[in-house]
Amino acid sequence: MKKIPFLKVSVAAAIIFTFNACKKNMNENAATVQPSKETMTAMISEHGTNPDETILASVGDLASTSSRQGDNDDEHFLYTESNNLGTNSIIIYKINKGGTLQSAGNVISGGSGTGKGLGSQGALAIDEAKGWLYAVNAGCNSVSSFKIGEHGKLTLAHSANTYGKMPVSVSMHDNLLYVLDRGSDNIEGFKIGNGGKLTPIAGSVEALSSTGVDAPQISFTPNGNWLVVTEKATNIIGSFKVKNDGSVNAGKFTASVGQTPFGFDFARNFIIVSDAAGGAAGAGASTSYNIYNGMPSAVNGAVGSSEAAPCWVATTKYGRFAYVSNTASNNISSYYVSAWGALYLVHGEAAKTDGGPADIVVAENNYDVFELNAHDHTIGWYQRKPFGELAFKASITGLPVSTTGIAVY
């Protein structure tokens, strides 16, 4: 996402910046002064030029319009995985024009699951440009590649064994795929070859900061130069420099500002991390980090939501909003991301959910939002409203109890 130069930020937004207690020390939990509702509204509007808001004005409250899917009739799909013990499978839903989900079958993943939730973000990863999906098989220590075909159909191309144990999260950039092995506290990489063949990269296996760190996610930075890993048990964010041959240097490990860093996503080239705070009631927060030379530095500290166990994060297309699912509060919070990366809570509860909201994703149309509920085994469907609000529309029921991961195409 394109980062807006500071000098082009509106005067109104710049004034808000002076209200921040913006402490750059990444080891200090900086306090954030929350602007008034009127000031927040003016800041979010960006003088009517906020592109993530503009899309809402163009579609209004219509229940069905092709404009949400673009100017053509391209089909869009949602994928999740059963993670069933023994035989894992990828479950497919077609996203209809109005946003409803329609079952489109499933395909065997080429491996086995664990029979229970993984507690991770990124169990599935999609290469939209090339039309490939990648998935972990945590029960048998492997990762699989699938070609996405007509009408969202998946064809299993290749399954490769991982060096480490219990892969829970994957991320890809260009022809590189990296896997987080939570059971053995390491990361490892594969070259993506013709036909989706996955070949291990020599020198790509690197250890996390310690053992038993309970790492939930791995992801490339948008430019592909670094890999980022969160560690829940150690309150650490790890970063690994990607070398020209696809291997990585040993990790750099930085103490997170918030407690229990969990899921994350990128917005305006900043990384937005959920801080689960050990699941304590009302203690949840999220933190925006700038990454310079691989080292994360908090922009304006951990911003509390007064909710419990914020774990998964999804950002909008233009990076103005971050939605965080609060697993213990059974709701979703929304945050605004400023041009300089400062994070502001918009709604502690932007929407209620079914039990145990987990993975969350913003659809390709930048309008519909879907989240997976781990306790009720449902997928909730929401539509974005102005200023970070979400309107609940419907739920898909009957998912396997171990279902994990969610991705859209």
Write up this protein.
With 409 residues, the chain is mainly β. The chain has a single domain, classed as 7 Propeller (Methylamine Dehydrogenase, Chain H), CATH 2.130.10.10. Strands 8, 9, 10, 11 and 12 form a five-stranded antiparallel beta sheet that branches. A four-stranded antiparallel beta sheet has the order 3-2-1-29, with no helix packed on it. It has a four-stranded antiparallel beta sheet with strand order 4-5-6-7, with no helix packed on it. The chain is globular and about 55 Å long. The chain starts with 10 loop residues before the first helix and ends with a strand. The N terminus is likely disordered.
Q: In terms of topology, how is this protein built?
A:
Elements: H1 11-17, H2 37-45, H3 51-59, E1 76-81, E2 89-95, E3 101-108, E4 124-127, E5 132-137, E6 142-148, E7 154-161, E8 167-173, E9 176-181, E10 186-192, E11 198-200, E12 206-207, E13 217-220, E14 226-231, E15 236-241, E16 252-255, E17 261-267, E18 270-275, E19 285-292, E20 295-304, E21 310-315, E22 321-326, E23 331-337, E24 343-352, E25 357-362, E26 368-373, E27 378-384, E28 390-396, E29 404-408
How many domains? Answer: 1
> What is the CATH superfamily?
YVTN repeat-like/Quinoprotein amine dehydrogenase
Report the sheet with the most strands, covering strand number, pairing sense and barrel closure.
Answer: 5 strands, antiparallel
Distance between the termini: 18 Å
CATH class placement = Mainly Beta
Give me the Rg, rounded: 20 Å
